[in-house]
Design a protein that fits this description.
This protein is an all-alpha fold and about 130 residues long. The protein is about 70% helix and about 0% strand. The relative contact order is 0.15.
């Protein structure tokens, strides 16, 4: 009987240990910022994006801005970038101009993972390249 209890205990311990290990092949253990960066790396490497992104991310981290960031607001802004300064007055006008003409940037902002990242100041701070 004691052997059975010990064996069950070992099996349970191994199962718990195994399930707690990150599995990068399945996307576990990789932060949201890292997943977004991998997915949109080509866009993030563009010179025009790199020129405005740090300041935009810094603006989005502000607590009063965070209250306004949700999928509906992001969708409104992506569809009509002229509304962006109404939601975020401190936003870089270069970003607004870029958003008006750049479909790739609009697609990036429509990505649910990007929207989730934008709603998390801690995740923004840990974004690669930020």
């Amino acid at each position: 009987m004691k052997k059975r209890i010990v064996l069950c205990f070992l099996i349970c311990t191994l199962c718990i240990f195994y399930s707690s290990m990150p599995n990068p092949a399945l996307g576990q253990g990789v932060s949201l910022a890292q997943r977004v960066h991998r997915k949109h790396n080509k866009t993030f490497q563009r010179e025009d994006i790199r020129g405005v992104l740090p300041q935009v991310l810094e603006t989005l981290k502000a607590p009063d801005t965070q209250d306004r960031l949700n999928p509906l607001t992001i969708s409104i802004v992506v569809n009509n970038p002229d509304f962006l300064p109404r939601f975020i007055p401190d936003i870089d006008p270069k970003f607004v101009a870029l958003l008006k003409r750049d479909q790739e940037l609009k697609n990036l902002l429509r990505d649910p993972q990007v929207q989730k990242l934008l709603q998390s100041p801690a995740a923004i701070m840990n974004s690669p390249g930020c």
